[in-house]
Amino acid sequence: MNTAKRSWMVYATLLVVFWGVWGAFSSQPNTRYGYPNEMIYVIWAFTMLIPAYFALRGNRFDRRPAAALWGLLAGLTGAGGQLLLFQALSEGPAYLIFPVVSLSPVITVLMATVLLRERIARIAVLGVVIALVSIVLLSIPGGGSSDSHGPWLLLAVLICIAWGAQAFCMRKAALVGVNDATTFGWMTISGLLLVPVAFAMMGGLPSGAPWQAPALTAVTQVLNAVGALFLVMALSRGKASVVAPITNALAPVLTIVLSLAVYQTLPNVWGTIGIVLALVGSTLMVYSDEKSGEDPAEAVAPGADAGGRVQEAPLAHRP
């Protein structure tokens, strides 16, 4: 196996592990201590500095306008979607919001195939479809409600579009030769820029929260931040039309497995079907990539290596 060609699988696997564990424990600060979601966002934004430091250490920060453009777009769509999610959850039911938001890989796949001309084999297309179905099924909790419409629906659609576009922007940054560290650096800056907005939504610092709340938030959000770095690295090496569905399908599977082990919570019938479909869809996509003779790294712009790192070249040939 060509290590450079398949390295996206390694980072995608690490992403699934970090986001799967994060998903299993991310709600604890709010459910245990009533810690505001906006404050969780603030702490997350600052935890992004930790992986950003290690990513940027020893790497050159790309100061080209293209790097700033795609890095900021990736950061603002991701962080902005997170803030919109808090507002949506305050107006509508989570069990209806998350299935809509979970369709964000559809946006990524459409943008990648139309704008980046990514081509995937038929068996991979089948895997993508199965993975997308599994994502929706994994988002359906038990129970139901008649509250199926409201202003939250528009917000959920906007979040879906924003997070789908975020993955596209990460991939596009790699294709124009922006290294992973730079893209993640701009994403970190974007998250911090929206911290005042989170404070405004919250109405100030929360009072009366025990120290365990911010401490637990920091621990869980570090997992989230590191997972975001692995997403950047996976998308710089693999096709967005494959990486986005496979990671969005498998991370919830690990979350459900951990929740089963820690909280003794069984998935509902839809979740069980979703787990099976996620594994089937992901297997088909990986199998297709194994059989494909096309190297995703070859799509990287001239002047960059397989990881999106810019190589020194005559000025006339730089992207």
UniProtKB/TrEMBL annotation:
Q: Which residues cross the membrane?
A: 39-56, 68-89, 95-116, 123-140, 152-169, 181-203, 215-235, 242-263, 269-287
* Record keywords, A-Z: Membrane, Transmembrane, Transmembrane helix
* Membrane topology according to the record: Multi-pass membrane protein
Q: What is its main location?
A: membrane
Domain (EamA) spans: 7-139, 151-286
- Entry keyword Transmembrane helix: yes
Do you know which InterPro entries this protein is assigned to?
Answer: AA-Vitamin_Transporters, EamA_dom, EmrE-like
Q: Where in the cell is it found?
A: Membrane
Mind telling me which Gene3D superfamilies this protein's record contains?
1.10.3730.20
GO annotation, cellular component aspect:
membrane
Name the Pfam families on file.
Answer: EamA
Q: Does the keyword Membrane apply?
A: yes
Q: Where is this region: Disordered?
A: 294-319
PANTHER family, alphabetized: EAMA DOMAIN-CONTAINING PROTEIN, INNER MEMBRANE TRANSPORTER
Identify its protein family. Answer: Belongs to the EamA transporter family.
Task: Provide the protein name.
Answer: Uncharacterized membrane protein
Please give the organism: Actinacidiphila cocklensis
